[in-house]
Amino acid sequence: AEHRPWQLSGGMQQRVAIARALATSPQLLLMDEPFGALDEMTREHMQAELLRICAETGTSVVFVTHSIPEAVYLSDRVVVMSPRPGRITHVVDVELGTRRDLDTREDAAFFKKITEVREALRGLDVDLVGDDLPPATADR
What we know:
Layout: H1 10-22, E1 28-32, H2 40-57, E2 60-64, H3 68-74, E3 77-81, E4 88-93, H4 108-122
Parallel strand pairs: 1-2
Antiparallel strand pairs: 3-4
């Protein structure tokens, strides 16, 4: 290695941290806001890498994030918690299939799940999500 850890970019530091965590072949990987400080393009690349690695290794991940699109894109299930005390308030099943790619982020089902999680965060009845949503307009 030609560089010291502090000389690496944020994305490269995250790659090293994930590689280090996966070196012991864990069944479960705990990640707390690992991509929060990355720019959007690097974040999306790291999300794709994480999905690829998990598919190849069979590793499960508990991923903490404040980004709703990130939670939906990376998850089979999004667990919504209350602020204080931290209690589970909703569990939203994300049924986008196992293969996720750039097209997933543009799919109507992806946006529907983002809305469902957002409404769960607001404490609204998530059963209302779906066909009952008003159409999107440019005025909003």
